[in-house]
Amino acid sequence: MKTKKEVTIYDIAQQLDISTATVSRALQNNPVINKNTRRKIQEAARELGYRQNTFASNLRKQKTNTIGIIVHELNSNFITSVLAGIEKVTADAGYDLLIAHSSESFKKETANVLNLFHKRVDGLIASLAFDTRGLDHFQSFFDKNIPVIFFDRVEEKADNTKVIIDNFKAGYQATKHLIEQGCKRIVIVTASLSRNVYAERLRGYKEALRERQIKFDENLVLIKDLSEKCGREAALQILQMKPRPDAAFITNDFSAAVCMQTLKEKGIRIPQDIAIVGFNNDAICKIIEPQLTTINYPGMDIGEMAARNLIAHLKGDTDIRQTNTIIAKSELIIRQSSLKKGKK
């Protein structure tokens, strides 16, 4: 089948017997061209099937009006809410998004960074994979002064703009709450400690124990991938521990819900036998029975903060290089899964 020739401004100009400059200005809605002429040209463009070549136009301007996003997964309520926050801000500012995900692979993340660099995105917002080491693979962006903002999983010590919560404080609050419920043998189920979010939550857990003079036991630290399988595995490990833990702080709500359900199937009462706290405040917290105590991790706010700061930099209103770390507010939301006191 023969491909139909792409319609150009020259075709529109020829049909209407006007100059290409007039057509070009009218298609950009330039007020220099009177309203009736603009309408006539735009109608002709629609009838002929004209498509504006924004790519070529943007290349001439050295700008694509596109922002790259790199996330470590897509199957996550938290990431979905972050993307919603980014999209809300970028759409209002007239930017398109190119989204890539690493599937928790440093190798794939590196390829994504290079791909988005060659796609000439104006800026980048990224959250790192479990096994990412350093930020050398972002050097092409840094060398070209293309702004990069990291969120959630970041290189804490690197001199880059990042949007995070106080993970140490969140881990501390969750553990302190369980201790206040009378719990003394608290399991923490977390992920790769090479990532700032999990290392800091563990540090907060340890500090809450230390403050209450409860000895830290490394056997109560379970390092997993925070998947559905992880939730089941954690529950079975908890059941085999002697003496059995009286609480679990699981740093992901979905894993916490699966763990809780598995424990209940084995005859464990929640929270009477084992109190549980999750992390993120996903929708599943209100669906599981009993409802899950959690840390509210405001993904929408984080996405908006990252996008707003990036666009302000692109517009020249601010310089993100002068802002190292932006802290979003998180909070402990107490529900029935952790309330041992008053339970029989």
UniProtKB/TrEMBL annotation:
Keyword list (alphabetical) reads:
DNA-binding, Transcription, Transcription regulation
- In terms of superkingdom, the source organism counts as Bacteria
Domain HTH lacI-type, first and last residues per copy: 7-61
Has the keyword Protease been applied to this entry? no
This chain belongs to the protein called LacI family transcriptional regulator
Species this protein is from: Flavihumibacter fluminis
